[in-house]
Amino acid sequence: xxxxxxxxxxxxxxxxRFVISSHVRPxxxxxxxxxxLAGILESLGKTVRIINPSHTPDHLGFMDPEKRIQKIKxxxxxxxxxxxxxxxxxxxxxxxxxxxVGLVLQQTSARKVVIDHHVSSDDxxxxxxxxxxxxxxxxxxxxxxxxxxxxxxxxEADALFCAVATDTGxxxxxxSDARTYRTAARLIDAGVEPHVLYQQLYERSSLARLKLxxxxxxxxxxxxxxxxxxxFVTRKDFSETGAHPTDTEGxxxxxxxxxxxxxxxxxxxxxxxxxxxSLRSREPVDVATIAEKFGGGGHKQASGxxxxxxxxxxxxxxxxxxERAFENGNAS
Length: 332
Description:
By secondary structure, this protein is an alpha/beta fold. Helix content is about 35%, strand content about 20%.
């Protein structure tokens, strides 16, 4: 579904100051899309700030070497963030995902814009540019640059390539369509060296991460006729292995490597006692509908939610929803 970018282009030409934000615990698509869009706007002489609800994870810090991404309340006040002409939200359209940035949106008089590819959505009172068929928001930002006849720099191309590559599992997920590869080709033409970015993204592990993986994968259990896998991580696991919460990223996909498995989830205990759930699946299982039952959301095959603890109770609630989904033909 091609987006008509002209209304956004009109907004760009009518404004001078922009704030770009994404979701809490930003991934590479959120960070890369924000950095790519910032570059596009700055090439037109616009003033741009990137203000997120969370700090950039350490393992993705290489994407923002100038450390231009700010955290709301820590680096910039809500009042200051409100002082802009346009506030653009990328890679989400859910209030729950915005946390304190949501307070900015509620108070600002700025024009609001959403650029997103997720199925789950709230009404943010914004002009929406949304395409759920796009494999990553980075694809949309790359297409925006093309629609505006703007050539991205190598730095911007690197950020956008990371956005697309990670949201497609380095192009191995089912959302990696011809459009995705055309986007990758454009970015490579702009100077991206995929082998360098792969090393930055996937070959900078730590011993602590490997120890955590050993613990978590050792807990994997099968459920619902061996079509579902699940595991969990506690705060004690982090302290005992020396690992960081970001070291759990990607572990949920390991469950899908088991032959016959159609869905997988991992639970990560948070400091405040809540439990972060990451859900993945293969067709025809729709994990977005399950995540939405707990106030979360995302894509049909990749979603997340935050549940009340403790971990064992959160697991029981999720297993019940998965069982209901399987029995209702979600995985027929």
